Amino acid sequence: MLEVRDLVCRYGKVEALKGISLSVKQGQFVALIGANGAGKSTTLRAISGVLSSAAGQLSFEGQDITRCSAREIIGRGIAHCPEGRRVFPDMTVDENLDMGAYLRPDRAGIEQDRERVFGMFPRLAERRQQVAGTLSGGEQQMLAISRSIMSRPKLMMFDEPSLGLAPNIVEQVFDIIDNIRKSGTTVLMVEQNAYSALEMCDYAYLIEAGVIVLSGTGEELIDNKHIRDAYLGGSGH
Prior knowledge:
CATH architecture: 3-Layer(aba) Sandwich
Oligomer: single chain
Distance between the termini: 31 Å
Number of strands: 10
Order of helices and strands: EEEHEEHEHHHHEHEHEEHH
CATH superfamily: P-loop containing nucleotide triphosphate hydrolases
Structural class: alpha/beta
Radius of gyration: 17 Å
Largest sheet: 6 strands, mixed
Helix content: 25-40%
Number of domains: 1
């Protein structure tokens, strides 16, 4: 479904991605793990068209999207749930959801999806007229996920969905992401909590200093000595 080939991205003179390649099959849950600053978020930003790549190729469903704008990429069916939630703080919950659906002409379908996300997140339904900036961190994360769902994506990309959330909320958010995948949406997730990501995913890539150094199934990577020592604290979590 998604092919990333020899992708190079720079911030000024700093090469953040040094020719990485990865692929995501339809219906898969793929995790991208690694330390802070390894290039995980940069990868998602390049795929979603927020950041231009210096070299390499991106293709989605067999079509080259390397030079597509962020708007075109959303239109093709890729949604990006960014790190730090990035909700529109002065807009209500309802208005944030409308922003997620702004490219869609089908009013009835939009209302259906709105009811669907309120079913997934009853707390958002109670706060639909509340401005997003006054929500808790967990509620803002729920809203960011819901806003992405409103574009009815084929591929959903999550950037650090557990960041800064209480453990009970993290569990809830991961359950929702798992349900999104079970409903047929392909998932690519960047996550610092390597253990949780590897437990959930079908396949994973480890990125270090802008280079993919390991890949395999979640189970294979949980059992890998380098990953256990560097990311899972030795013998387990």
